[in-house]
Amino acid sequence: MHNDIEKILLSEQEIEAICKKIGSQITADYENKKPVLVGLLKGCIPFMSDLAKHINTHVEFAYMSVSSYHGGISSSGDVKIKLDLDISIKDRDVLIVEDIVDTGSTLSTITKMLKSRDAKSVKVVTLLDKPAGRVVEFYPDYIGKTIPKEFVVGYGLDYDEFYRNLPYVGVLKPSVYTK
Ligand code: 5GP
Ligand code: MG
Ligand code: MG
Question: Which of 15, 133, 152, 163 qualifies as a FRET site for 46, CA 20 to 30 Å off?
Fold first, then answer.
């Protein structure tokens, strides 16, 4: 599996430093609050668990699964909910945890939707941001690292459902796509 990686964009050490840094920012920003971390499955899993270890306040875990259909060359941004939250977020401080923001359609839709459920606040933390891919205007509140417009895998991010278990984020060798 590691042989399929051309280059590493985010090492395990960098990921650890990001989780510590953002974790302490969130700890300060949510002092005396009990935020709900809403993870977007499945990509959020490694990042959410590592990040949460560095958040020193009471947090609740909740998950949603959404899919976005970017039809052909025009990003339609049609976002569908495959699995909804199992809790009410009315009057709660919600912090959405995402692996990567690309076009911005997923998160602009989901933040609007969660705000419309009368959450007290809705913010977004993403491990990676690809601002060059934006189609919809969207600014995450916390960003681990800004990367160029490249397709990345690992640490939650998949190619055809594989590579999520890599402990780092990297770029696949072109030969993998043509297999
Ligand atoms: P957006 O709605 O911002 O375009 O899409 C966000 C979703 O697209 C991410 O949650 C992720 O599932 C997928 N995605 C965007 N860029 C990449 C990438 O470079 N690698 C992988 N594996 N998924 C990506
Ligand atoms: Mg995702
Ligand atoms: Mg995917």
Answer: 133
129 lines ligand 1 (CB under 6 A): no
101 lines ligand 1 (CB under 6 A): yes
Across the chain, which has 179 residues, the per-10-residue mean pLDDT values are: 96 98 98 97 98 98 86 60 96 98 95 97 98 95 96 96 97 89
Measured from the CB, is residue 99 less than 6 Å from ligand 1?
Answer: yes
Question: What residues contact residue 128 under an 8 Å CB cut-off, 6+ apart?
Answer: 10, 99, 100, 101, 143, 144, 145, 146, 147, 152, 169
Find the helix or strand (DSSP H, E) in which 174 lies: helix 174-177
Say how far residue 167 (Cα) sits from the centre of its chain: 16
Domains, the chain, with CATH or none: 11-151 (3.40.50.2020)
pTM of the model: 0.95
ipTM of this predicted complex? 0.97
